[in-house]
Design brief:
The longest helix has 28 residues. Helix 1 packs across helix 6 and helix 5 packs antiparallel against helix 6. This protein starts with a helix and ends in a 5-residue tail after the last helix. With about 210 residues, the protein is mostly helical. Helices cover about 75% and strands about 0% of the residues. It has one domain: Vanadium-containing Chloroperoxidase, domain 1. The radius of gyration is 21 Å and the shape is elongated.
């Protein structure tokens, strides 16, 4: 089944340049894209109203870190060769890649950890992130660097890590950590004159002083 799905996707991509180019571009920038999204949220999600977004970004980052750490251990134990190594003449390789172990897929692991962490806190944007993670995972199979089971294992591992850190005890600690870091960051911005300053009480209430 692994080989059948792999060859179907791999051959399809080889025969359709119109799909190959944008998919390969997305795959190549995907890692930076997911990381950049989290960094932007951490930097710009300031103030009480946007606090849930910062908590989400911190949870997503920690989920990805945990999942990738476990995935690294698994990959060393399983030591599974990639498709282009197992069948160098039958698999089309669309970009250079190291011949390191491919199970589970790091890209799928990290992307699904981030996406699931977002989905648990925001269904709309979480669904968008899950779709992006799924396209990335399918693309990694299509370009010949992973078996379908590699990305399925990565998806399961990433989602599992996000669910584990969403459990109440872990979630409460992550939220407190996020609020602490956010407080330090916002205080630093205020010292630099870049943060939002509280308006005087009279301005907020509409009263004036004589």
């Amino acid at each position: 089944m692994d080989w059948s799905i792999l060859h179907t996707l791999n051959d399809f991509l080889y025969q359709h340049d119109a799909v190959e180019d944008p998919l390969l571009f997305y795959i190549n920038i995907s890692e930076a894209l997911f990381i950049a999204a989290l960094v932007l949220i951490l930097v710009f999600a300031n103030g009480e109203r946007l606090r849930p977004w910062r908590r989400t970004a911190v949870a997503a980052g920690l989920s990805a870190g945990l999942a990738l750490l476990v995935g690294k251990v698994i990959s060393e134990i399983v030591d599974r060769a990639r498709p282009f190594v197992d069948d160098p003449h039958g698999v089309h390789l669309f970009s250079g890649h190291a011949a390191d172990p491919g199970f589970p897929s790091d890209h799928a692991t990290g992307a699904f950890a981030i996406a699931m962490a977002i989905w648990l806190r925001n269904r709309l944007w979480g669904t968008v992130a899950l779709i992006a993670a799924a396209v990335l995972s399918i693309g990694r199979v299509a370009i010949g660097v992973h078996f379908p089971s590699d990305v399925l294992a990565g998806a399961a591992l990433g989602c599992g890590a996000a669910l584990l850190l969403y459990a109440r005890p872990a979630r409460d600690r992550i939220d407190r950590l996020s609020d602490l870091l956010g407080g330090w960051f916002e205080a630093g911005l205020r010292r630099l004159g870049l943060g939002a300053r509280d308006r005087p009480t009279s301005a907020r209430t509409g009263s004036s002083t004589k």
